[in-house]
Design a protein that fits this description.
64% of the residues lie in helices and 12% in strands. Strand 7 and strand 8 form a beta hairpin. The longest helix is centred in the last third of the chain and has 40 residues.
């Protein structure tokens, strides 16, 4: 799920960069386009000329990306293998490379069409007066329709390749929502900068920075979109990962049992309970009979046809029986059978799994137990919390249906950590056939597994952020000419290089902080949604990750902005101003 999110977000960040690069390229070609228009070139000719140029560059970029995508995993195979918690086979697989090329082509088309179409709409006379800034915000209707169709094609392709349609749709919706939010944030940042500029009188460095951010040429939208989307993904991954870890390493041990004991024979239960019930260190014991069974039919229809690949019908499941509901059992619908019931088999089904399977009261479920088919009617639904680490059965039948079948018991023991070793020694000596599973060890293994998976997702999110940083560098490079002119004007009016440099740094820092704050809000919202509705865990903001996102946004824009500040500062004002005459 994380990698789908990261991959689609990386495409969106790269697309924003492509769009910004096309706009900057066309801005530099203003005089060329103007000359072509005055010589009689039609709108279609202008569009096709630059579409072919950008298409050729896109194909080169896609080819390089596919080659790098094939080589990099092979080069770093030992490092990746050491980090992953599961075995991995590294080889060149053609199918993912073809998928990547299709993604790249669709992304390039989607994000270049709009700026190219806007350039086509500009009249020859206005091109000499910075037409790309003064042209209409929206292109012709045919290009808007084409953009919508390309968006649907990209999302449809992602649904096909990912194999998880709903996840892809929610991810695409989340990315689109984040782009809209970031676009609105960029507009708001420019508006706030313009409103705050008069209040900065007497502080020229701040006034210059605010004036530049509020102006039309600073590219606040490119900075906030490219950096903000990458930071949003990183923030969401950080919040989800942190909350999942907390649920497992902090919350689960508080509610989970100390031990799971399995394979307890029926005649061993009295001695087993006698040892534990008389131990003051044991605060709770839960036990239940357990058999294994396969769900073969639902309402007389093969289970796979009804439930598809749902985990309940995939392989054998643990089944229990009981005359009355256990302590703390919550019946959500229907009624439990009367104590001592000896009629046709009845079953109480886990409520959440029943809803996923589309079951209702009165439906029948056929379970094959030790080669015998038992068809039971669903008479109640109940809450089953598998997240507690305790005993939980999807299906519980009435006792008469199963108690004569050969079976064993399982049990959970809740005890103080200091007593666990002694309990294990005593039970192992008295009942050597019983298998003990220490839950804390299982939790540690799960934590290790999650660490490896989280490392992979963090690297994926970092790649998205790196893409955003490269887009920032491109935006800074594209704005170098305007900053050179600005520096020349300020120098002519008496500003020192140090003040101009501080102004450049301040505007970068303010834009980075704005992008970081918006990304943090989007990341926290996304993390809450995934934690609450998908992971079904409690959610709390991981502030260490949150502050890191804001600091990262500021540093990224500072580095990108200052890297292209030195040449504007070194340029001679006279030469710059003469060139603009």
């Amino acid at each position: 799920a994380f990698l789908v999110l990261v991959g689609l977000s990386g495409l969106a960040v790269g697309g924003v960069g492509v769009s910004a690069a096309v706009r900057a390229y066309l801005a530099r070609k203003t005089s060329v386009i103007a000359t072509l228009r005055t010589l009689g070139a039609s709108r279609a000719t202008i569009f096709q000329t630059y579409f072919l140029q950008i298409g050729a560059l896109s194909l080169i970029g896609i080819g390089l990306g596919v080659i790098l995508g094939a080589i990099i995993p092979l080069v770093f195979a030992p490092l990746i293998t050491a980090s992953l918690p599961v075995p991995a086979l590294f080889a060149v697989h053609p199918a993912p490379l073809i998928e990547a090329a299709i993604y790249g082509a669709l992304t390039a088309l989607l994000f270049t069409l709009w700026p190219l179409a806007r350039a086509e709409e500009v009249r020859a006379a206005t091109l000499f007066r910075d037409a790309l800034e003064s042209s209409s915000l929206f292109p012709a209707v045919r290009y808007i329709v084409a953009t919508g169709l390309l968006t649907l094609s990209l999302v449809g392709t992602a649904m096909l390749f990912s194999g998880n349609e709903w996840l892809t749709l929610w991810t695409a919706g989340g990315i689109l929502g984040a782009l809209v939010l970031l676009s609105l944030a960029a507009i708001a940042i420019r508006w706030l900068a313009r409103r705050a500029t008069p209040a900065a009188r007497g502080r020229p460095v701040l006034r210059w920075a605010l004036g530049a951010i509020g102006g039309p040429r600073e590219g606040a939208a490119s900075v906030v979109l490219s950096l903000g989307l990458g930071l949003s993904v990183l923030a969401a991954v950080g919040q989800i990962d942190g909350n999942l870890r907390n649920s497992i390493s902090r919350d689960l041990p508080e509610v989970a049992p100390s031990y799971f004991f399995v394979d307890i024979q029926k005649d061993q239960m009295p001695g087993y309970l006698d040892r534990l019930e008389n131990d003051p260190a044991v605060r709770r014991i839960d036990s239940a009979p357990m058999l294994r069974g396969v769900v073969t039919m639902i309402n007389g229809v093969p289970a796979e046809e009804v439930a598809g690949d749902h985990w309940v019908v995939r392989g054998d499941r643990g089944i229990t029986y009981a005359d009355r509901p256990g302590e703390g059992t919550t019946i959500t619908a229907g009624e439990w059978w009367p104590e001592g019931y000896d009629g046709p088999p009845q079953v109480s089904f886990a409520a959440e799994e029943a809803e996923e399977l589309g079951l209702k009261l009165g439906d029948t479920v056929t379970v094959n137990v030790l080669g015998r088919d038992i068809t039971a009617t669903i008479t109640s639904f109940r809450e089953v919390n598998f997240a507690s680490g305790g005993i939980g059965f999807v299906m519980s039948l009435n006792a008469a249906a199963l108690e004569n079948a050969p079976h064993t018991f399982i049990s959970t023991v809740y005890a103080t950590p200091e007593s666990e070793a002694q309990i294990l020694r005593d039970l192992a000596q008295q009942f050597p056939n019983i298998t003990a599973i220490r839950v804390a060890d299982a939790i540690d293994r799960v934590s290790e597994l999650l660490e490896g998976i989280a490392a992979a997702t963090r690297w994926g999110a970092a790649a998205t952020l790196l893409t955003g940083f490269l887009v920032l560098i491109g935006a800074a490079a594209a704005g170098e000419q305007s900053r050179t002119f600005e520096a020349a004007i300020l120098k002519t009016l008496g500003a020192s290089r140090a003040r101009i440099l501080r102004s450049f740094a301040l505007r970068s820092g303010l834009l980075g902080a704005g992008a970081g704050l918006v990304a943090l809000g989007a990341g926290i919202l996304g993390g809450w949604a995934v934690s609450t509705f998908i992971m079904e865990t409690d959610f709390a903001v991981i502030w260490s990750s949150a502050f890191g996102i804001i600091i990262g946004g500021i540093l990224a824009t500072l580095l990108a902005g200052l890297a292209f500040a030195w040449r504007p500062l070194a340029a001679r004002p006279a030469g710059v101003l003469r060139a603009r005459e």
